[in-house]
Design a protein that fits this description.
By secondary structure, the protein is α/β, with parallel strands linked by helices. The protein contains 11 helices and 18 strands.
């Protein structure tokens, strides 16, 4: 059932471009909850979805883009649970089966039935095969996927559901190695990296070293609390090692994932260190003994984060310890925002606001 009209940024064919379309306003049934969207973040993952070739992803077009969404609960299905009507929330993006052991623990990002959901082509989250939040309305399968944000501004809240959550999860993945006097390198100070710097400063005592190819990104890293920043150059590994007293970094968070960033990660990591590869830049790491990786290296591929972690990220933001660098675009300028992100013109996170 539907009532009224609304706008949505729809991917109608693989390779794009997306189309701003008039769509019907959804009506929630069962456990579903309808969110009136106040802000929707734009992510490089959206570019990967838009640019995918037919068959690359287990989704059916058309669907509405957008997996970083904040807004107000507008309507609930008769069996809905969670936040009440009119409560302001952020939507947890990865939607699992809701019933397996991992989903029951809040780790729907690692749902045990995700492969089956992909095979059924039902979509595994907002804007990932199922209609997302680059729209006036977002229909969420269950209130369990909503986290209250109180008075936090929507443009701050929306990016927390991916940029903030993924950065927090990556830090959590390597946290066991971080202690007093250790150093952590953040590669790529964009939408996720600038939040990782803040999360590291707020939750650890590590020396935070930032690397990017853009001088303005290093300025942002400095504003976010990085102890040191350097442009990516042939001598970057030596420069960073000198900042660690010669021992290397206990952890590297690579938000780029390119060949050059992974080469640098390998060159700066200390023995027994941790490499978390978050970015999808197409680079590769060869695992071989003996090889280029320092002995004892642990490699992880963090994906999104858990519901309890999203609650912690929201708490940090509400306390003022986490602030997203935002560039706002009206929903009607969504295609312009996408091209700005693609060309590297966005500082921090692009956020769409209904107009």
């Amino acid at each position: 059932m539907s009532t009224g009209g609304a706008r949505a940024v729809r991917l109608t064919r693989w390779g794009g471009p997306p189309v701003i379309s008039e769509v019907a306003r959804p009506v929630p049934t069962g456990e579903e909850v309808l969110i009136q969207v106040e802000a929707a973040g734009l992510c490089r993952s959206d570019l990967h979805v838009i640019d995918a070739r037919p068959g690359d992803l287990p989704y059916r077009t058309p669907f509405t883009l957008g997996h970083e969404v904040a807004g107000r609960v507008a309507e609930q299905g008769p069996l809905a649970v969670g936040p009440a009507v009119d409560e302001r929330v952020v939507a947890y993006g990865p939607w699992g089966c809701g019933s397996c052991a991992r989903c029951a623990s809040g780790a729907e990002n690692y749902c045990d039935r995700r492969a089956a959901l992909d095979a059924d082509r039902v979509g595994t989250g907002a804007g990932l095969g199922r209609d997302g939040g680059m729209a006036d309305w977002l229909l969420v399968p269950s209130g369990r996927l909503l986290v209250p944000v109180g008075g936090l501004a929507a443009v701050q809240a929306a990016p927390l559901s991916d940029a903030g959550l993924t950065a927090f999860h990556a830090v959590t993945t390597v946290r066991r190695s971080i202690g007093d006097g250790t150093s952590v390198v953040v590669l790529g100070v964009g939408g996720l990296g600038h939040l990782a710097v803040q999360i590291l400063r707020a939750t650890t005592t590590a020396q935070v070293l930032a690397v990017d190819v853009r001088a303005e990104a290093l300025t942002l890293a400095d504003e976010c609390g990085a102890h040191f920043g350097t442009l990516l150059r042939p001598d970057s590994a030596a420069v960073l090692r000198s900042r660690t007293g010669g021992v290397g970094a206990v952890a590297v968070l690579d938000f780029v994932g390119s060949r050059s960033s992974l080469d640098l990660a390998t060159g700066v990591l200390r023995a027994g260190g941790e490499l978390a590869v978050v970015g999808s830049g197409g680079g590769e790491v060869t695992v071989r003994k003996p090889g280029a990786l320092p002995p004892g290296t642990r490699i992880s591929l963090p994906f999104w984060g858990t519901l309890p972690e999203l609650e912690q990220v929201v708490a940090l933001a509400r306390e003022g310890a986490l602030k997203v660098e935002v560039e706002r675009f009206a929903l009607s300028r969504a295609l312009e925002a996408i091209e700005a992100l693609r060309s590297g013109e966005v500082r921090g996170r692009a956020v769409l606001v209904p107009d």
